[in-house]
Amino acid sequence: MSVIEVSDLRKSYGGRAVVDGVSFAVEEGEIFGILGPNGAGKTTTVECVEGLRTPDAGRVRVTGLDPVTDHERVTRVLGAQLQQSELQAKLTVREALELYAAFHPHPLDWRPLAERLGLTPKLASRFGKLSGGQKQRLFIALALIGNPRIVVLDELTTGLDPRARRDTWELIEDIRTGGVTVLLVTHFMEEAQRLCDRIAVIDGGRVAALDSPAGLIRRTAGSTVISFTPSAPLDERDLNGLPALVSVEHKDGRITLAGTDETVNAVITLLACNRITALQLRVTDATLDDAFLDLTKETAA
Ligand SMILES: Nc1ncnc2c1ncn2[C@@H]1O[C@H](COP(=O)(O)OP(=O)(O)OP(=O)(O)O)[C@@H](O)[C@H]1O
């Protein structure tokens, strides 16, 4: 069942389309990622889902509700991560949790939530004195306090150190295991690859691709790279004739080929037929980074 439906969403500023016909659906219980370069229209899209911006055209539904006309009801099913500026520096963690719990008709008990997020030792600390990671944990707690079915997290781990980032990822997985659907806007490929069931790559206000992380990688031209130093020279025509080959590079006697598994199998056969040994043979898969660069290269050009 889709809990978020976006179809042909459009939004312009000063006559410039920043969201230009975006469509996707988020299924209940999944972690759905929105990935894209700076200025691609990710936040604008997500803010239309939250009902914070009114679309110029298109249709947005959150559990069947219109986020603009049914804003009140949408805020009960959808929890959104606050921006830094929305909390006063002098508010303590406990006060923030109590305050935000009071905004909701059926809030979660904030004590176990604070415990789960590792905030119990910080309850008396003022927001302004928290570390970046502690602030993020508090924002996640505040997004979840209304007991939402869906939580929207935008740039969740920006500014966190690697340890805090990994802890936050575990937390997001726990949240999903608890039955909450997660809509995640991120710049971090590793984060998207690790957490998301599906990803919409948004570029220039449009959906450039929508697939699982593995599916996006498979679409990348040259998704497998094989490199080796041959024990004897190889015929250049044989190399260029390899199936599904995307590129061949020679450097310091080493050959690097980008292609698919078919290319790898064919090069191994070619080497065997010519009784050539492949020294320091390495085969690597493309990453989501490669897929992202490939999918968004037109706007970068
Ligand atoms: N209120 C506004 N008025 C005018 N232009 C805006 C407004 N909000 C966003 N924009 C412009 O719309 C474009 C898309 O912005 P948006 O914040 O949606 O992108 P984004 O993909 O979230 O980018 P980033 O990754 O940098 O946060 C940008 O060029 C931005 O400058």
Automatic annotation (TrEMBL):
InterPro entries xrefs: AAA+_ATPase, ABC_transporter-like_ATP-bd, ABC_transporter-like_CS, ABC_transporter_ATP-binding, P-loop_NTPase
Domain ABC transporter: 4-229
UniProt keyword list: Antibiotic resistance, ATP-binding, Nucleotide-binding, Transport
Membrane topology term: Peripheral membrane protein
Annotated SUPFAM superfamilies: P-loop containing nucleoside triphosphate hydrolases
SMART domains: AAA
Domain of life: Bacteria
Localization of this protein: Cell membrane
Molecular function in Gene Ontology: ATP binding
PANTHER family recorded: ABC TRANSPORTER ATP-BINDING PROTEIN
Record-given protein name: ABC transporter ATP-binding protein
